[in-house]
Write a structure and sequence with these properties.
Blueprint lengths: L12 E3 H6 L4 H9 L3 E3 L4 E4 L8 H8 L4 E2 L1 H7 L10 E6 L13 E6 L1 H5 L2 E6 L2 E6 L1 H10 L1 H4 L1 H12 L6 H10 L3 H11 L1
Parallel strand pairs: 5-6
Antiparallel strand pairs: 1-3, 2-3, 4-5, 7-8
Amino acid sequence: MHITNPLSSKQRFYSVNDLRELGFSYYKINKMVEQNLLSRINKKMYENATYSGDDSDYVSAMAYAPRGVICMMSAARWYGLTGYLPDAVDIAIERNMKVSTLPEWPRLHIWYFPGKRYETGIIAEQDEGGQFRIYNIEKTVVDILYYRNKIGIEETREILKNYLSRADRNLPELHRYADKLGCGKTLRTYMEVLL
């Protein structure tokens, strides 16, 4: 039995739940895989072979880590806080989670965050490839400040300086995140030097 692909060419990834909600049985899903209409990424996600939209590193990263959140230098780049082009997508998952399959592209750099750091400041953003989860700009700056020894002191300084020069900066929110996530004192020290 040949199945014509009833999936939208505008959506690249489908979860098993998405396919089930569209009315596909497991039998039909397996038939679509056999006929190369879908390719299986892992136990929960499939890639649509007829997708014809733009590629998005961030949306692709979400397919491999559905509960992941774009973070660190990848998020800083999204917000225009750095000119640095990461060679992998930085993605945060909670410490007890795991990513079962890592893609060849885009490369993923996994950050294992404790519960409070992982769940704080998540928002949804959209690019030409679809929707993805990312930390808001203030949370991103605080995470980079907290992990400054892994990121690099100069990069951290550049990101904080660029954030402080923005007209839409929200300093009370920045301080709130810093205090909540254990780097309020560090933020105040950096601010004294930069301002």
